[in-house]
């Protein structure tokens, strides 16, 4: 008894098969169509920038353009969702991130500073949205972004290991922000 339902025919007492090919065919076609279209045609990628990050914006737009015009390799297109926030105010960044998540972004790309990192890492962890940054702050190990990726590795620990390895008694450490002095002091 494959492929059908047994039904008693009227008058003869025999059973005959009623084919279920229509239902089976529809289910197979739906599964096949779902398998072919498992990846959306356009994937929205969110980006939040602050003023002064023109080089990062240009690099991101260029990489999106290269990906989208490479027809032989790309199985999907990337749709940039780019917003520029006028400061690193956590409230403004959170509001912009919520608007981007409402637009259905799959991941977020944003440069982080000390002020914005906590907000971005918290939202990323809460909503399990991947978060990519050119560099996390050095102190971010206290507050990890479980779904975050920093493109620049942490180097301060490596510098300290070199100093210890060579037993240098005097070093000169140049920094361009107060954060550089703070990181050296806390390492």
Automatic annotation (TrEMBL):
Name of the protein in its database record: Receptor ligand binding region domain-containing protein
Sequence ranges assigned to domain Receptor ligand binding region in this UniProt record: 57-178
Annotated TM spans: none
Keywords: Membrane, Transmembrane, Transmembrane helix
Major place of residence: membrane
One term under GO cellular component: membrane
InterPro entries associated with the record: ANF_lig-bd_rcpt, Peripla_BP_I
UniProt keyword Ribonucleoprotein, yes or no: no
Organism domain of life: Eukaryota
Annotated compartments: Membrane
Gene3D superfamilies, per the entry: 3.40.50.2300
